[in-house]
User: Fold this.
Amino acid sequence: MIRIRADQFPSILLILLTILAFAVFWSIMDMVLLGASLAVVLIPLHNRLSLHMRPWISATVMTLGVLGVCCAMGLITLAIFSANTSTLTHMFTVIGDWLNNPLTNPISYGVPLSKTTLTTLLQEGTGLFVDYQKTILTNLPVILFKMFVFFFTLFMHFLRGEELRTKIIGHVPAPLKKYVNRLSDATGDTLYAIYYVQIAIAVLTFFMALPVFYLLGYGDIIFYAYFAAFCELIPIIGSSVAFILIGAYAQAIGDTMGVLILFFLGYIVVSLLPEVYVRPVLVGRRVKINPVIMFIGIIGGLLTMGLAGFVLGPLIIVLLITSYRMYTEEKKERNALSVVVE
Assistant:
């Protein structure tokens, strides 16, 4: 029978309360995870700044810097979408007419989706890309609260993250400290790779999409390429949404060649190839894990946990593989030692 010592009760209680907090506040936990994970990536820069100023000032500067970058990107995106509102409105109107026409509705061609499902998808797309101002205003309280949670988490991890890590490791039994330190290093490498690769693939998507939309011949090449890159930057959307949407428009206007260009060059080459090959290879190379396993972790995390899975999926895979490697290495050392003793 396992007995719990009195000094272990606070740790056990803390773990139980942490699990309870995750369960109760799961709807905002994605912002907590994103804020904490981004802080881990940026903490080295914060530490450099802390050498020249007080830690709380450095934490404030870093947080405001991230806020400034996010606001700048948001304003640029809003300006681009506002300047191309007529293009998006026309696109969604044509797709809507195509869906409502019994002769051209995809259901008539055996597409296994109900009209309600197609209409809902169209409405969601319209709300996200055309009526985005109305959508933002409607959800403004939730958006502002989630932004507050994200930036507060980011600030507190800049300010107390290293101290909290030191305290946690300090309470770890001595024999386990080397394992905890190794898992901590693996976590930092994984998070760095996740964010670096996400930004790199969004930039790559923009430049790869330019010739695709040039061949398409619809004009507004820069806008369409930015549209695909913007969708790619948001993990739960992906550039495939942009190519599927524009492909539906091409089908609606009867442009068969455009559909083929968007499917083979857009969806397969620009969207699918980076997700299936480039991202898993780059992230896997950083943490020395097979790209196929990383692909399972990345896609599986997004499918099961949404935005939080963008971080948790590959991170869990890396921690599991690292733990297994530590176990096998220790087992080999014990076997080698036993052979020497004999």
In short: Residues 38 and 195 are 8 Å apart (CA to CA). The longest helix spans residues 174-216. Residues 175-342 form one domain. The chain has a mean pLDDT of 81.
